[in-house]
Amino acid sequence: MGKATKRTVTIRDVAAAADVAVGTVSRVLNDHHSVTKQVRERVQKTILTLGYQRNAIAQSMRSSRTKMVACAIRDFDIPAFASYVKAAEATFRSAGYTFILASTANAKDVELSLLQTFSQRRVDGVMMTMSDETDPDLVNAITHGAMPIVLIDRELVQSVDSVSADHRAGARQATEYLLSLGHRRIALLVGDPKAYPSRSRIEGYTEAHRSFGVPVDSYLIRDRLLSNEATFRETAALLGRSERPTAIYAAGLDTLPGPLRAVRTAGLVVGQDISIISGNDSDLAELNTPPITALRWDRSEMGRHAAEILLDRIDHGRQSPPRRIRLPVSLVVRGSCRPV
Which domains does the chain show, CATH number per domain? Predict the structure, then answer.
């Protein structure tokens, strides 16, 4: 004699056991404000007791929502993204959303493929970075996407919401601080200028030189550095010249390890033979000997802002103009810079 199949608990079973109408159970499941606290708690207790599980697929077909959001970032290996992702995920989770995280590898074809996949999976909204803010295919896909999109630290696409940090002002602060210490040969290490952060950092670096009346030596600007090996190689090349830089501004999110390694390999001492500023405050910057002067902004706040904007777009559509939030950047002075 075969085993009896366990019957699936339905919403009607919950309603009968809790002595409420089916519509009341539905309102509790959808967190409707019209249900009293006493009734809500009774229904929730009954759901747990009976082991009721709502059919997510059927629910999404009725509501046209899947209660899923996606986040696509450049690289999982960059620690700076962790606090951003953690804050965003917590915000979505508290609103009842499942959070999907993907890596773009900073590649256009991956970004376009992910956008297509997110659309096919009917996610309710997307937060993402862009490898190239000027690429027409990417701009078109983001502008005309089937779901709302919030850009992470990207500003050139004006048709969608964005949350970013004021990297231009931060770069100007860092460079002016070095110039005020007498440095005139300041190396700048940045990522790809096709993305807002690097482009803005070059602008801030240039503005600082202009404000001090110091000409910019373009040879000292090294861009498209997207790995520790690349920053090490470029820094080593700069330090090997007869007129080496007296200071290094490692401006990218994850560019500090490369120059620290290159300085050590060259037999130099940070804070004595050469000054260094990191464009991203981190455990490495704080715990290094000496501690590294660094730029800081609230990445958790950036994640919360992006998640809240996306939730609002999911609820209310694109009725209002695109929103742009830019967080301030501050300079944390430590022991890695000295006057010359």
Answer: 11-54 (1.10.260.40), 66-165+299-328 (3.40.50.2300), 167-297 (3.40.50.2300)
Strands 247-250 and 186-189: parallel
- How confident is the model over 111-124, as pLDDT tens digits? 999 999 998 888 99
Alpha helices in the chain (DSSP H): 11-18, 22-29, 37-50, 56-63, 80-94, 108-120, 136-143, 167-180, 196-212, 228-239, 257-265, 283-287, 299-316
- Bridge partners (DSSP) of residue 188 are 221, 249
Q: Which residue has the tokens 């519509």?
A: 23
Query: Does the model's pTM come out above 0.85?
Result: no
The rounded Cα 223 to chain-centroid distance in angstroms is 21
Tokens read off for 79: 């620690």
When computed from its CA atoms, the radius of gyration of the chain, rounded to whole angstroms, is 26
